[in-house]
Structures are given as C-alpha cells and as structure tokens.
Amino acid sequence: ATYSLMKCGIQLAKEVPVVFGGVNYPNWGLLKHHPNVTGFHDKIAFNENISVAKELFGEHVRLFTMLDTTYIDRQIRRDAKEQFKGYKVTGFIDNPELSPEEQIRLAQEEGYTRFMAIPLRNARNHSNATFMWVLNRSYRDQCYIQLKRDYTTINIGSICGSPSLTAINEAFGFGEKLLGGYITSLPIQVEEEVKTAVRILHGASPSDIPIVESRKEYVVDWNTMTQIGLSKESIPAKYRIINIPFRDEYPFLWGALVASFVLFLILFFASLWWLYLREQMRKKQALIALADEKETLSLAIEGGMTYAWRLDKGCFVFEDAFWASQGLNPRQLSFKEFMSFIHPDHWEGVKFNWRNLKSAHKKIVQELCNFDGKGYSGGSFVILLNSFRVVNIKQQVCCSTYKI
C-alpha cells in the first residue's frame, strides 16, 4: 500500500503527510522523493526468531521457509545473509562451496542451526504433489517460519504439518496456526504510528521525523498453543500470550470470582427463602390476629366490658382500663398472684392448664374469679397465647381460653 501510494503519481501523495508501518523492506530510493512520508521499518529479526524456535521446540529444531524470486524474496535473502554473519546457520543461503552433505554435517554439530529455504518456483515447476508432501509431512523437530505473506505463502501455517512461527505480524493471531515469534505486534505498530501522527498534527514536519525500526516483542498465540499441545508453563516469562482467556491468564482471580459468584447466588437464594418464610410467618400471625379479633368481637357482641391483656416474662399484664373498671391501680400479676383471684375449687384445673400452656391448642375453660375483692362475681376470662388476651366482665364466671 505504501509503494502504491508513492507510485500512483497523484500530486496529493507528495503533499499530504503520510505515516507508514509494517513495511519490512522500504524502497529507500523512492522515499527520497517523498519528504512528506515517514514511518517505521519493520525489519525482520532472523536470529532472534531462530532463538524463539529453539526456546519453544529445543536446540535441535530444524527450520524451513518458503521463498520465491520476487523483489521481496531477494531482499529477504540479502538481509538474512547479512544478519547470519557470525552465526552458525546453514542451509538458508545457497553456498556453492558447501555440498549438501557438508551442510547436513554442520547442522549435526553443536550450535549449528539447519534453516532451509524451499524455492516455490522450482517446486511448482517440478511437482505440486511433492511440494504439498513436504508441507504436510510432520517431521520430528521441524518448524516452519513465515518470512513474507503473499499469494504464494498465504495460509501455509494452517496446512503445514509442522509447528509454524512468524517473523512478521501479518496473519498472526487470526486463526492461521502461527504460534508466534519476535515481531512488531499490531498494538505496537498502531501505537507508533498514532504517536507520530499526533506529532505531525501538533506541527512537526514529516521530513524532520526519521524513519526508524519498529519496536518488537516476544509473543505467542494461546489458540495455537492449545492446538499443538504447549502448556502455559512451557512458555518463557518474557513472552506475551495473546488471545488467552481470562480464566487461564488469571486462574486465582478467576477462581475467586467464581467462588464469589457462587456465594452471591447462595446468599441471594437464601435471602429469598428467608423473605418467603418471613412472609409466611406474617401471614400466619395475621390469621391468628384475625381469629383473635373475631373472638374479641364475639365477646363484645355478647355484651359487657372487654379488655386486653398479655403475658410478659411469665407475668399477667392487664390494660389500665381494666384496673380502672375494678377500682384498682395498674400492676403486673405473677401466676401466684393471679391464682389468688381464682376460686379455690378451680385451682387444680388452672394449674394443670398453666403447666400445659405451651403445648395447648385452643381450649376454653370457665373459672370463678374475684378481682375487686367483692366476691366471686367477676365474669368471663379469656386467654389467647402469643396474642393479645381478652377479659370480659360478666357475671359469676371466669372463662379461660388457651391457644398456641
């Protein structure tokens, strides 16, 4: 895209500021005629990516790549030859002084790396079947490295039977089984271009911003890792893993979140259950209160004066109006004091009912009582447990109702 823009011949292409990135081999001669263009040179790091292959697949890994005879391929070969100077790499650059047998012997020596470049033109001319056999054959300790991406190498990583690395960021992380490498990742590329564009927008001239090499990082793709059976523990700490699920990147935090969510659900449903039980209890209490009100109304209809009372810590507490009707001062009565108001002939029955008060169902008894000291002419006495109780002053009889 950068070359096409500069070669299109449009005048704006020489006037509008341009920032490029991801260019492995810039056309330096063409760039000299475009002072409005600047950017970042994504220079392939050959030796660093060989180190990646050795770190992930062992010291004796054998590498291969696909090259053609285009301008980019020639640039790759020239750049590789320059970077491999002083390094023990054999097989990549055709060396007429070394026979194939000598190259194999060197590769078997300690420290040497076998890096083959399969010529695509020859492979197509001789036999497409042979070329596909090479790709799909799963050799032990063999690894493919992507050095370019065009119509001849597209999707090679997916159809290759061996693990695949990449020295460029194209297609990495997008389902083509490229494990990773030492590359300028897309986040770095975008960051560098945006920062440079901001400088230009703030007044800097593109001609004053030199073209520099892009920053690189060690990256691997989680999805490809799982496909080829590599564990997270086998990846060195300096590598950044992309596409990794949150639960695998932060297992302890994920476990804590899951446990917290489960605990939240338990507490949530427990609170719903508690609210349900509370509502049922309120409903039950409302029904009891309704029954008490009905019974109180029934007594009121019968005539006489009706008063409420309750049990409080084993003592009988009557409303003040009751004591006023009897001409007495309000006070609490213990069971013993309460018994003093009951006719002696009824004591045994009252004591029996008192002992069984907690387990009693509704029970109505009639007792003679004397509250005002003027003889046993008090009237009806009604007891309702766990609710307000009622006293109905009638003639000669105390009626007691026990109910849970």
Explain the overall architecture:
The chain has 404 residues and is α/β, with parallel strands linked by helices. The protein folds into two domains: 2-252, no CATH class; 303-402, Beta-Lactamase (2-Layer Sandwich), CATH 3.30.450. It is 41% helix and 20% strand. It contains 15 helices and 18 strands. Strand 6, helix 8 (156-159) and strand 7 (164-166) form a beta-alpha-beta unit.
In short:
With 404 residues, the chain is an alpha/beta fold. It is 41% helix and 20% strand. The protein starts with a helix and ends with a strand.
Lay out the secondary structure.
Blueprint lengths: L1 H6 L10 E6 L4 H4 L5 E5 L4 H12 L4 E6 L3 H13 L5 E2 L9 H9 L4 E7 H7 L1 H9 L5 E5 L9 H4 L4 E3 L13 E4 L2 H16 L10 E2 L3 E5 H7 L11 E3 L3 H4 L1 H52 L2 E8 L2 E4 L1 H7 L5 E2 L1 H5 L7 H9 L7 E5 L12 E3 L6 E5 L4 E5 L2
Parallel strand pairs: 1-2, 2-9, 3-5, 3-6, 4-5, 6-7, 10-11
Antiparallel strand pairs: 8-10, 12-13, 12-17, 13-14, 15-18, 16-17
Measured distance between first and last alpha carbons: 90 Å
* Annotation, overall tally of beta strands: 18
User: Residue ranges: pLDDT <50 for 5 or more in a row?
Assistant: 123-127, 382-404
Number of helical segments with 4 or more residues = 15
Shape category: elongated
SS content category: alpha/beta
Helical content (DSSP H or I, runs of 4+): 40-55%
Strand order of the largest sheet: 4-5-3-6-7
The quaternary organization reads as single chain
The main pleated sheet reads as: 5 strands, parallel
Mean pLDDT: 80
* Beta-strand residue percentage: 15-25%
